[in-house]
Amino acid sequence: MTANVEGPAEAVSCAQLSYSFGATNAVDGLDLSVVEGETFGLLGPNGAGKTTAIRCITTLLPVPAGTVRVFGHDAAGEQMAVRRMLGYVPQQLSADAGLTGRENVALFARVFDVPRRERAERVGQALAAVDLEDAADRLASTYSGGMVRRLELAQALVSAPRLLILDEPTIGLDPIARTGVWDHINAVRAATGMTVLVTTHYMDEADQYCDRVGLMHRGRIRALGTPAELRRGLGERRRAEGTAASGALPTLEDVFRDVAGSGLDDKSGDFRDVRSTRRTAHRVG
Amino acid sequence: MSEAPAAPHTVSADPLPGKDIGLLLRPPRPRAGWRLLPARVDAMCAVELQKLRHDRTELYTRAVQPALWLLIFGQTFTRIKAIPTDGIPYIDYLAPGIIAQSAMFIAIFYGIQIIWERDAGILNKLLVTPTPRAALITGKAFAAGVKSLIQAVVVVVIAAVLGVALTWNPLKLLGVAAAVILGSAFFSCLSMTIAGIVLSRDRLMGFGQAITMPLFFGSNALYPVSVMPGWLQAVSLANPLSYQVDALRGLLLGTHAHLAADFGVLFVAAAAGIAAASSLLGRLAR
Ligand SMILES: Nc1ncnc2c1ncn2[C@@H]1O[C@H](COP(=O)(O)OP(=O)(O)OP(=O)(O)O)[C@@H](O)[C@H]1O
Ligand SMILES: [Mg+2]
């Protein structure tokens, strides 16, 4: 709505974004453009810098002026405006175990300035949208992992964000809970038209649910396109090189392995990465 | 750059069958600047009260220590008459000190909660809401104040049961509430400041334990400043707890107090604490 006249607006743009923790260049010259209305998947091995990039976009980490924009607003200078447009679900399961589901959502209604008279109704709608009405008045400590994720989705949705940012929304969930989370993301997205930026390790999910994906490795995007484009691209290259496996079309996972080297389990993913991923898999509390 | 979404999603007829999510299509209107802070304080206090409602064990376990202080220390020293208290029974003299002490104990460990929230990702999520860091810290500080206030009510009731002659003047009780909340705001910010420096629960526990006793004994909570050695008097003069106790004594017992100075110091201390904790909050977000 703000940017160029033709075509949809840019929901997120990063221009040569870099962020270092001491000597670790977690994000290293990232260029990223998420178009309004799409579901964009940021993929990459452990330690690729996905979470760091997302923390830069959500204003959690300080960035230089002009490098990160959300719907045209600078994440450095207009933090409040950026935050008002965001719904954010971090990598960890982060509902407050000492509160009920409803109270968890109500907190976010309050801090997003939902007026008192419509608070209860709005909270109810957010809980209904993720099918948690029946469990709403139970403590979140009694929720399963999939329910916590849906609760977090409700927390993010209660402020009607234009951009939903999900950091590994299905990590540590069983296949049914994973499908459940994605079904709700897609239903809400279809109903509201919001933009979704998601990171994941699950290539099947990316293939199935993302309009476009960016494969990140060592702080930068190394391959970008629709899942079909990336698969086709790798297939064509392999055919040209004569290394194509007999007839089988490459999967997104092949593309992932191609980009990240064979480094799915060695090299990348230092101890901290593995530990934080494991912690995520635990339930709240 | 690659092309825009290959297949733009058609908004399906009814993605959430039978559900009204009309409100979720409209972002709430931002509150005007000056109303933001009270709204955030309100939100944080509401959460604190909700948590207390779900789990009251802390309320009960925390009542044990002050009860013992009043029951054993208070009654014994009332009989010994070793401490000059201007003619009031020692247990009466002690009661405001124990109210302040038990409120401080709650506040000084409040930073543990913020570290827990950080480890659980809750803090990150709150920081991605339209809540300036100072507003978040102020909200937390007052939430700690509310928790301490409930603790103070418990101690007042215990003291009353033990026969301490406290005021029931509502205006003075309001002043008591203000002193408890301001003091707790300071001590919780002290705790959150240390949290922002040490970044770990265990280390914060250590710090908390290391400073509570000096703060307590280096104040007028147990004995008047006049009986302290000179160096301890200097410590007491720089200790916000002393001003809080002075105010509580003046209001609850009607002893001679320096209310204006007491509230002035408490207010400035709380404001400085909020500023310090807010400036270090970024370290917890990193
Ligand atoms: N708070 C931190 N302090 C120090 N180093 C960090 C911190 N956060 C991330 N890093 C480092 O930055 C790099 C990128 O980490 P990041 O968490 O962004 O990766 P990721 O792609 O999200 O990985 P994962 O898939 O495991 O979540 C890693 O090398 C990591 O060790
Ligand atoms: Mg990550």
TrEMBL record, chain A:
Keywords: Antibiotic resistance, ATP-binding, Nucleotide-binding, Transport. It is found in: Cell membrane. It is a peripheral membrane protein. GO terms for cellular component: plasma membrane. GO terms for biological process: response to antibiotic. Residues 264-276 have a biased composition (Basic and acidic residues). GO terms for molecular function: ATP binding; ATP hydrolysis activity. InterPro entries: AAA+_ATPase (IPR003593), ABC_transporter-like_ATP-bd (IPR003439), ABC_transporter_ATP-binding (IPR050763), P-loop_NTPase (IPR027417). Residues 12-243 form the ABC transporter domain. Its main location: membrane. SMART domains: AAA (SM00382). Residues 262-285 are annotated as: Disordered. PANTHER family: ABC TRANSPORTER ATP-BINDING PROTEIN, ABC TRANSPORTER ATP-BINDING PROTEIN NATA. Belongs to the ABC transporter superfamily. This is ATP-binding cassette domain-containing protein. It comes from Streptomyces adustus.
TrEMBL record, chain B:
Coiled coil: none annotated. This is Transport permease protein. The chain crosses the membrane at residues 59-78, 98-116, 149-168, 174-199, 211-232, 259-281. Signal peptide: none annotated. Keywords: Antibiotic resistance, Cell membrane, Membrane, Transmembrane, Transmembrane helix, Transport. It comes from Streptomyces adustus. One of its GO terms (molecular function) is ABC-type transporter activity. Its main location: membrane.
